C-alpha cells in the first residue's frame, strides 16, 4: 500500500480536477464544494497536505499542487480509469456500472497492481468513457517486457533483448541493434515496419516478432 490515505488522495484528485478548469489558484471553498465538506475541514486538510509538501497553500488565494502531489493525483486518476477499463473489457461490466467500483478500487490498489493491469491490457489510451489514461508509469520496480506481437502502432519501446535469430537477421540487414524503436505500421501479412530513434525504418517479418523482447516506453 502507498503512503497516502484515501482522504488525502481524494483531495489531491479534487485539486487536480479543479486546476484543469481554471488558470488561477484553486480556492479552498471550491475544494470544499467539490468534495461536499465544510470549508473549515477543507482548510484543515489542505494545511496537512501543505505540511507534507504535496500542495502549496497561500492564505486568501487558495491552493495548488506541488510536483509530488500532482504525481499522486495523476496516479489516482490512472488507477480509476485503468480499473474502469478492466471492469468493462475483462470482467463483463456495463459502462454505467463501473464508476462506483472504481471509486473504491482506485484507493486500495498499489502502483504495482495498476501498472500490471495497464500492461496486461496493452496500454489503453482511454477508459470506456473516452477519458485519457495517463501514460506515464508509476511503478518502476520491475521490468515488464512483452514481445513484438503485443506492441501497438505509434508506441515507442525500449528493446530489452533479442533472440539469436533476430540478431542474425539484423546483421544481414547491416542494422545495429536499436535501443529504442517505434512501431510504425502492421502489414497485411502480419510483418511490421519499425522506426528507430535514428529514423531508420525496416521490416520485421511476422515469424520473427516473438524474438523481440520490448519494454513499453512512451507514446
Ligand atoms: Zn469513473
UniProtKB/TrEMBL annotation:
Gene3D superfamilies: Winged helix-like DNA-binding domain superfamily/Winged helix DNA-binding domain. Keywords: Activator, Cytoplasm, DNA-binding, Manganese, Repressor, Transcription, Transcription regulation. SUPFAM superfamilies: Iron-dependent repressor protein, dimerization domain, Winged helix' DNA-binding domain. Pfam families: Fe_dep_repr_C, Fe_dep_repress. GO terms for cellular component: cytoplasm. One of its GO terms (molecular function) is protein dimerization activity. The keyword Iron does not apply. InterPro entries: DtxR_MntR_Metal-Reg, Fe_dep_repressor, Fe_dep_repressor_sf, HTH_DTXR, Iron_dep_repressor, WH-like_DNA-bd_sf, WH_DNA-bd_sf. Its main location: cytoplasm. It is found in: Cytoplasm. Residues 1-66 form the HTH dtxR-type domain. It comes from the Bacteria. PANTHER family: IRON (METAL) DEPENDENT REPRESSOR, DTXR FAMILY (PTHR33238), TRANSCRIPTIONAL REGULATOR MNTR (PTHR33238:SF11). Homodimer. Belongs to the DtxR/MntR family. This is Manganese transport regulator.
